[in-house]
Sequence to fold (134 residues):
Amino acid sequence: MAVAVIGGIAAVLALLYGLYWVIRPFYKRQLWNVDRDNPATSAYVSLQRLAAMNNLVPVPQQTPQEFVAQIAAIIPEQSQNLDLLLRAYQGRRFGPDKGKPGLYEEAEILKARVLVYGAMLQKRGRLHRFLWQS
Fold:
């Protein structure tokens, strides 16, 4: 009887572990996916997803500036990078810069994105870092 219970628990744990390795790549691909034609918008949309994991969901009447200010209150050390992402997003979304950014600008956006995302993931806690960062 005890062997059956232990075997059942081991089977359930093995199943959960297997599901973890199946689901993890899809989650990471969704979070870190970059649209090379418009990295600023891609970064902003993914930032919204990541902020939602930290219980920060933009309300419909909230402007991008207000939303980024809310995030900056949580990770003030990344306020410059958040500002860069915000300016790039607004320039592409609402400004005259509709085309693909230059190589330097794209590199700056991607660098800021990595630093901001890293800081946001740090706020999630040890278990989340273990599960989702590699």
Q: What stands out?
A: The two ends are 39 Å apart (CA to CA). The chain is about 75% helix and 0% strand. The mean pLDDT is 79. Helices lie at 2-32, 39-53, 64-74, 79-93, 103-124, 126-132.
